[in-house]
């Protein structure tokens, strides 16, 4: 699980430092495996403006550039095809270490002309494999400022290991919630604004009679009049930071929801659907041409979402190419469902499909966060893609998740040897979302791993330190 520090702080109001957050995560059992700070590597490189670019007198493919650093000018010889006057660039000066090679830059003479620096490409800065030309920075970037600031890269990326029982922390919000419970700040409330209903959805939902246990709840709505342009820079930056490739706004929103709130969902192009959507088991021999470019032959125990024309999605694992969104998409159907972890795991293993959705579904999602997730995703689509939303259509019902547990205060010491006062025990359990009804303890819906007294003892020890 990866996230940036600023992303975490979207959900956690905290004054804690990166080192303090890192130490607390590991103490909570969310072991920090790696922290990457691209900004640290780019700190020496500054924003400069090319004011003049002239043909090199002794080389056809080189240009002699005059660059303004904000505090003076330098002469740099550059061979990039896009080296020209009027652009902002990333300047390396003598003494700077080039990330891609590890070599220290020196002033020199190139084909008889002095060069006092280097105009860098994305690959030379270690940002990507792009090397066809020098990196062009935003025109608004202040001359002499850090390239890391200009690119928004002064944001450390934190990678943590999550044990299989902590599905609640397979999201940035879940990690923030755990840190808040441990006293590292205050969890910010989610903004769950219900969308205005503008029309009746032309697509309806159904759950086949023999699949109610495999899909207890299926929610969706049509959103028409959307524009599926490239997503805004902030969204692209966050996805790239955790290793995902931005595709389009609609697709990027579904990926963002998966990592931000731990809520996989899917959008179908309604113009490519044939009738209503039904959750059912596959018919023997049916096939799915998936979004990963592969075609899978399905078995009768594989749970799918289908329309009248056939299978559109392998439930909880991956969507189909035939009904996927494209830049031409103008109307979508948003699907938010709850699938049985075992059904998702079996299909994923048998078909050897690894996906971020499968990772979360097979560990168990919050059963009480389906309707709210649909509203949050709807609002995000409307804000970023425009359009108008239909009424929400629903099949099935919220599954029964309530569990009633008891805890004998002395069990903390007898099981662990650690003496924690009884009132402190209750305080820590309340911090992780437990409710109390007399002597009965009700774990929150997102903590499916709390099923017995020993689990409560573990929570108390984990938060107590």
Describe this structure in words.
- The protein is an alpha+beta fold and 465 residues long.
- Strands 4, 5, 6, 7, 10 and 11 form a six-stranded antiparallel β-sheet that branches.
Write out key terms for the chains shown.
single chain, 465 residues, alpha+beta, 6-stranded antiparallel beta sheet, 13 helices, 28 strands
Produce the secondary structure layout.
Elements (H helix, E strand, L loop, with lengths): L1 E3 H7 E2 L4 H10 L4 E5 L1 H5 L3 E10 L7 E6 L4 E6 L9 E5 L15 E3 L2 E3 L2 E2 L16 E2 L9 H4 L6 E4 L11 H10 L4 E2 L9 E3 L5 E3 L9 E8 L8 H9 L7 H12 L5 E4 L7 E5 L5 E3 L5 E3 L5 E5 L2 E5 L3 E2 L11 E8 L2 H11 L4 H6 L9 H15 L2 E3 L2 E4 L14 H6 L5 H10 L3 E3 L2 E3 L10 H12 L1
Parallel strand pairs: 14-25, 15-18
Antiparallel strand pairs: 1-12, 2-13, 3-12, 4-5, 4-7, 5-6, 7-10, 7-11, 8-9, 16-24, 16-25, 16-26, 17-24, 18-21, 19-20, 21-22, 22-23, 27-28
* Strand proportion: 15-25%
Mean pLDDT: 95
Count all strands and give the number.
28
How far is the N terminus from the C terminus? 23 Å
Would you tell me the structural class of the helices and strands? Answer: alpha+beta
Q: Gyration radius, to the nearest Å? A: 27 Å
């Amino acid at each position: 699980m990866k996230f940036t520090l600023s992303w975490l702080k979207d959900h956690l109001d905290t004054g804690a430092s990166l080192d303090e957050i890192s130490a607390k995560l590991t103490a909570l059992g969310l072991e920090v495996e790696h922290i990457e700070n691209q900004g640290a590597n780019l700190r020496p490189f500054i924003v400069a403006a090319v004011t003049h670019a002239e043909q090199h007198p002794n080389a056809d493919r080189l240009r002699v550039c005059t660059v303004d650093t904000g505090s003076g000018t330098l002469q740099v010889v550059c061979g990039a095809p896009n080296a020209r006057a009027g652009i902002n660039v990333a300047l390396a000066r003598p003494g700077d270490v080039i990330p891609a090679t590890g070599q220290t830059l020196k002033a020199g003479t190139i084909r008889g002309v002095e060069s006092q620096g280097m105009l860098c490409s994305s690959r030379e800065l270690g940002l990507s494999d792009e090397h066809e030309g020098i990196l062009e920075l935003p025109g608004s970037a202040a001359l002499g400022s850090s390239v890391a600031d200009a690119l928004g890269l002064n944001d450390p990326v934190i990678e943590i290991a999550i044990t299989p029982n902590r599905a609640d922390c397979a999201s940035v919000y879940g990690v923030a919630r755990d840190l808040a419970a441990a006293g590292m700040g205050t969890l910010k409330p989610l903004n769950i604004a219900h969308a205005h209903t503008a029309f009746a959805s032309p697509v309806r939902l159904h759950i086949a009679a023999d699949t109610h246990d495999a899909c207890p709840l299926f929610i969706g709505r049509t959103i028409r009049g959307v524009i599926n342009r490239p997503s805004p820079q902030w969204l692209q930056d966050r996805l790239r930071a955790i290793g995902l490739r931005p595709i389009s706004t609609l697709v990027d929103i579904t990926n963002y929801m998966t990592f931000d709130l731990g809520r996989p969902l899917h959008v179908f192009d309604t113009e490519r659907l044939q009738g209503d959507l039904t959750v059912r088991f596959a018919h023997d021999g049916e096939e799915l041409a998936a979004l990963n470019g592969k075609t899978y032959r399905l078995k009768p125990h594989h749970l799918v979402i289908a329309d009248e024309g056939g299978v559109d999605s392998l439930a909880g694992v991956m969507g189909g190419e035939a009904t996927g969104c494209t830049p031409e998409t103008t109307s979508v159907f948003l699907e938010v469902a709850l699938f049985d972890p075992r059904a998702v795991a079996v299909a994923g293993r048998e078909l050897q499909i690894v996906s971020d959705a499968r990772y979360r579904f097979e560990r168990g999602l919050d059963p009480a966060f389906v309707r709210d997730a649909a509203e949050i995703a709807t609002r995000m689509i409307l804000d970023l893609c425009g359009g108008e939303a239909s009424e929400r259509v629903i099949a099935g019902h919220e599954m029964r998740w309530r569990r009633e547990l008891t805890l004998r205060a002395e069990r903390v010491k007898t099981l662990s040897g650690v003496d924690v006062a009884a009132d402190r025990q209750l305080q820590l359990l309340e911090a992780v979302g437990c409710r109390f009804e007399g002597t009965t303890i009700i774990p929150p819906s997102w903590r499916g791993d709390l099923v017995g007294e020993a689990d409560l003892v573990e929570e108390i020890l984990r938060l107590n330190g």
